[in-house]
Amino acid sequence: xxxxxxxxxxxxxxxxxxxxxxxxxxxxxxxxxxxxxxxxxxxxxxxxxxxxxxxxxxxxxxxxxxxxxxxxxxxxxxxxxxxxxxxxxxxxxxxxxxxxxxxxxxxxxxxxxxxxxxxxxxxxxxxxxxxxxxxxxxxxxxxxxxxxxxxxxxxxxxxxxxxxxxxxxxxxxxxxxxxxxxxxxxxxxxxxxxxxxxxxxxxxxxxxxxxxxxxxxxxxxxxxxxxxxxxxxxxxxxxxxxxxxxxxxxxxxxxxxxxxxxxxxxxxxxxxxxxxxxxxxxxxxxxxxxxxxxxxxxxxxxxxxxxxxxxxxxxxxxxxxxxxxxxxxxxxxxxxxxxxxxxxxxxxxxxxxxxxxxxxxxxxxxxxxxxxxxxxxxxxxxxxxxxxxxxxxxxxxxxxxxxxxxxxxxxxxxxxxxxxxxxxxxxxxxxxxxxxxxxxxxxxxxxxxxxxxxxxxxxxxxxxxxxxxxxxxxxxxxxxxxxxxxxxxxxxxxxxxxxxxxxxxxxxxxxxxxxxxxxxxxxxxxxxxxxxxxxxxxxxxxxxxxxxxxxxxx
Length: 554
Fold this sequence. Notes:
Elements: E1 11-14, H1 30-35, H2 37-43, E2 47-50, E3 54-55, E4 67-71, H3 78-90, E5 94-100, H4 109-116, E6 128-130, E7 138-139, E8 147-149, E9 155-158, H5 173-189, E10 193-197, E11 220-221, H6 232-242, E12 250-254, H7 263-267, E13 275-277, H8 300-317, E14 321-322, H9 332-337, H10 344-355, E15 360-364, H11 385-396, H12 401-411, H13 448-451, H14 458-471, H15 475-480, E16 482-485, E17 493-500, E18 503-510, E19 516-519, E20 526-530, E21 536-538, E22 541-544, E23 549-553
Parallel strand pairs: 1-2, 1-15, 2-5, 5-10, 7-11, 10-12, 12-13, 14-15
Antiparallel strand pairs: 3-4, 6-9, 8-9, 16-17, 17-18, 18-23, 19-22, 20-23, 21-22
Helix pairs in contact: 10-14, 11-12
């Protein structure tokens, strides 16, 4: 594929509510991000993805937008955002925003008018069905029926996610035009692009027929009928033509449900988006993204196979957005490393394994510090609506309260939403007052101040790794080179090559707690990257120490 500017970026995702509180109200804000641009620039970040900052009642922490053209007052005013864009640009950092166009808040003026006056044009901006009974047995992603009854009328409205997030009717051309105008407004404002939320949900099965239930609640998950449905291509082509094509922007799609055989349509030369997140390896520990209380056993071999399948499929058609953490995922330390979640070298090894894959690397706030999951003692301590739903649904499906709390703690989205620990002071330097969500208990040990400038810290490792990818003599190969899996002798080793022209880099990552031998029959082996101090190389191979990340070339 042709080289694009966004392939070289280092993206850092910010959950603004939990990043830095500048005004002492316990909630992170836009000015708080601006205050920390020096930290981000020092790390080597070149692009910020900021989760929703639009006006919202915050039922789903900003993914329920009540005004696309205004900001949530707790985050600041438009001048604050303008200042952030300007000052970030001065440091060579671009800004992308979340784009949420599958649904709005039920407090959006369109929906309020639709409810107030069913004869209004805005009634057709959403999906309504008349009747005395619930139209079908589809289950929302956040639990319960996708249908919510309208007070005082024999009418229901559709919501694939929370009941305060009514889905927009993309079949309505006027809806689409209104959304396109909004997208262009933000791109003209100076942002570099969007991460696009839940975009594969915009097309529904218009028969709205009930299906066989897949749970004891008598419902069936709506992802079977409301995600990546035939006909979505019309909408996505039009979205790109009317917005993205008019700007030299980057688009990163949250596109669950997209098969590898569809990648050409989504991220090929004429694809709808620049790149997509692939969740197939991220969901290896659960039954599905909407049923994550159902745990699935996995091995490093399983992880290796899923990652390489993803990489090889995407390489055939386009470009990957590589991640191991985001606002919807638990901390990668706890998820992938289990009992080694506090082992610094294991954390570095895991970071290098995904970071050096083919694609643009995404870092989630706190990942560069090795933050871990936060174990909560009661369901009352959770804020995330999805976690609360999964807890009660898992009990309904037969788990005890103790078992339910255990699985929710492992996967809850609140794990990644705890306030960022800047130092070891009260409230971790995030705020001068009690934060909106409880601090993780180990913040006094795991915080930015304790790691910045410390040679062996996880932060400094990420900084060196970013510089190695961006500015070394191997950068061309590490950024643009093709990837091929290496067949390993050990099931707890993930290995691959990156190749560009005549240059080949051999990349090995040992997840085990034992020394292992991997054959590598090349002459003059040269170590170019290593998370440990020692290296053990023989003529016919390498001996990987526990938790070692090792890159070798000729």
